[in-house]
Amino acid sequence: MNGKLNRRKFINVLSVTGTGIAAGLPTFEIGAAQDVKPALLGGPRAHPGGFPGWPVFGQREEEALVEVLRSKYWGRLSGDTVADFEQAFAKKFGTRHCLGVSSGTTALYTLLGALDIGPGDEVIIPVYTFVATYNVVVLNYALPVFVDTDIETFQIDASKIAPAITPQTKVIMPVHIGGSPSDMDTIMEVARDADIPLIEDACQAHLASWKGKPVGGLGLAGAFSFQSSKNLNCGEGGAIITNDEEFAQSCYRFHNQGQGGRTASYQAGSGTRATNARLTEFQGGLLLAQMARLEAQSKRRSANAAYLTSMLEQIPGISPAKLYEGTTDSAYHLYMFRFDKNHFAGMDRSQLLKAMAAEGVPCSSGYGTMNKDANVRGLAEDRHYLKIYGRKTMQEWLERNQCPQNDILAGEQAVWFTQTMLLGERQDMDQIVEAIKKIQKHAGEIASA
Questions:
Q1: If pLDDT is split at 50, 70 and 90, which confidence band does 131 have?
Q2: I want to staple 333 with a disulfide (CB 3.0 to 4.6 A). Which of 83, 179, 311, 356 is the partner?
Q3: Is the pTM of this model over 0.85?
Q4: Could you give the angle at the alpha carbon of 295 between the alpha carbons of 291 and 299, nearest 5°?
Q5: What is the distance between the alpha carbons of residues 84 and 312, in angstroms, rounded to a whole number?
Q6: One of 230, 372, 437, 438 is an active-site residue; which one?
Q7: Domains of the chain in sequence order
Q8: 299 an active-site residue?
Q9: pLDDT band at 15 (very low <50, low <70, confident <90, very high)
Q10: CB 330 within 8 A of CB 208
Q11: In this predicted structure, which of 17-31, 73-87, 414-428 has the lowest mean pLDDT?
Q12: Percent of the chain with pLDDT strictly greater than 90
């Protein structure tokens, strides 16, 4: 990601700021005189305390792990804990079926495997996403087709999906970036009209909803991640949800070496490919315990995000990511906003990030221009891809993957806070706002420092 701070590394930064390193530094009080200098220029920090640590755990998580340990049933083929989690997760997310898997990446990989995606196929994905969305397509030797970003929402530009469809398009796979739903009405209509399966990458979107329905179950299936930075966390893990029983069977077989399960619910089939992507009983137990916290944490994030947005919208040059009209809930795995340097005396984004960190408010520039990354562009010279598609097709693929709006968003404007910051108090939100106001007032000095 061109050296940019990704969400997994960023969570560690937040943990450091929450350890009391800032103890003893002067506090910038809300409503203090507006001529107080930014911390970068020698003034007091706007946010001298830390943000909440992550993960949150207690006795119920300890008991869940010990119960699995003592049962001696540690793998899903011998125990029932993963099955219990799957049942609870499916009920919570309003679908008939859930399959626990080893990561969000393997959830996506399993979905594409169950759809028999392979050489010669194309999969439509957003350019603004974590690299796993791209990797699972390439692992199947299919062509990832990038669609540009709706710069106001950070989501895939749904109006540009239909023009990207070709006779080789076999899957449309939007990503609910930051936990906010993509424009699902438009995307579902495009998928229906083209008769192409719709797979939701909901890895960041636990309890996000579209018109009252949880995301992940709006298309054929959806994928979730339980990696350590996620709103629902077991270190590593993932899940698939679907309402299609036959497809659920295909996913189970693919993730279980092509075999059926311990019960008659899952039978061995005739698929030609498979892998091992099973979730362990330890992870299943931990997830059941963590699910008890999920709804309350989600409500707190949403309340703080709404308040923060109402404040940041008043600052010229700061534009919080918009939510589509159909959004009932955002998971706020990320709080994202755009920064316009023209309202900050020409100060560039890297200077803003540095100044915010000095204030005790860590933030990130987020994802980069994936379509321009060396490892992605190098696909055009990959010997396997050249053998499958030929040089002419691969050069045309490079030309197709131009995303000018994402170049602006990722290259100049995007700023992230992570979900743990939204678990703080109202005062934390006030201090974030005050930090930005201080920086803006003294932007000229910072820019020339």
A1: very high
A2: 179
A3: yes
A4: 150
A5: 42
A6: 230
A7: 7-54+293-367+408-448 (3.90.1150.10), 59-288 (3.40.640.10)
A8: no
A9: very low
A10: yes
A11: 17-31
A12: 88
